[in-house]
Amino acid sequence: MTTDEQTGVFYAMTKAMESGPHFLGVTPAEWTAAFVAAVLVAIAWELCMALTRRITKRLPFLMLRLARLGMSHEEWEQSYEGEWKPELHAFLMDPECGRLRRFLRAMCFATPLAFGGARMAIIAKRQSRRRLRDWARSVQRRTLRLVAACAMSIAMSAQLLASIFEISESIRFAIIASFESIAVLVLTRVYYLTLVERRRRRAAKKK
Amino acid sequence: MTMKVTPTTARLLRVFLEDPQAPWYGMQLMKQARLSSGSLYPILARLERAGWIDGKTEDIDPQEAGRPARRYYTMTGEGVRAARLELAELSEQFRVPETSPGWTSGALPKGI
Fold first, then answer.
1. pTM of model > 0.90
2. Interface with A, mutate which of B41, B48, B53 (most A CBs under 10 A)
């Protein structure tokens, strides 16, 4: 045995005597440290994966929520809860794709809606409502004009009725005054509605 | 009710016309017509407004199904008829004229 070999054997014996038994050349203390480190790394890995899963599932929903800007609460509820949310679920649960692809496709679904698509869809839906509203307004104005015309004609014919049925002067005056005032009030309302409509049209043209 | 049929709308209508009775939901339509959500939903709103398609929410229990109820779209009878007419008209507009220049297999025009 050479001197170097003797030194090596001596070193190993000394170490074994100092720290007890060995396994695969590693002390129990080092095995314990390695085991604790492995457990910690595994926990950290699982936490990261859980966080990633949570983010990849939630990020498209958060992106889609940006579409809420510029929409009324009712429109948002109707479109998001009734249409877009189930679609986003369908993208995120699609069994044909892997997790990353599902996330990317969900983001591809949410992003165009968040940046203009949702607003365009709402405008397209609103146009039919606007037409209905415009029609209702025009009917309202026509009805009010008819009421005013009726009131005016009754007021004007009161004079004739008074002469035929010999109604007293005070009653005749009361009939004329009441129906004329009704006609004036109704016509004022019609004029106001017309003005409001004109303003609305001008604002719409400016937009 | 009439509506303007753009090439993008035509792509969507072709998907619907593959099986006019079949109900479709957004993801299927996006995949089949290769449209983005930003294009799809405004078109669906216009088609629904025109009465060409009918949107109905799926009748399921979300708790049991494990997912929210989807909105399915089906073509109406009027929609099928109008869509076929519009697509035929659009196809006619984009048809290559018979008197095409010389890169077709026919005889070359005079002077070339």
1. no
2. B41
